[in-house]
Amino acid sequence: MPARLRKAVTIAALGATPLALTALAAAPASAHGTMGDPVSRVAQCYAENPESPKSDACRAAVAAGGTQALYDWNGIRIGDADGRHQALIPDGKLCSAGNEEFKGLDLPRADWPATDVRGGSYTFKYRVTAPHKGTFTVYITKPGYDPTKPLAWKDLDLSAPVAKSKSTDPVAANGFYTFSGTLPQRSGRQLLYAIWQRSDSPEAFYSCSDITFGGGATVSGSTPAPTASAPSDRQIAAGADKSTVEHHGHGDQDAATSAEPATANTPKAAGAVENLAETGGSGSTPYLAMAGAAALALGSAALFASVRRRATTGGRR
Question: pTM for this one?
Answer without folding.
Answer: 0.69
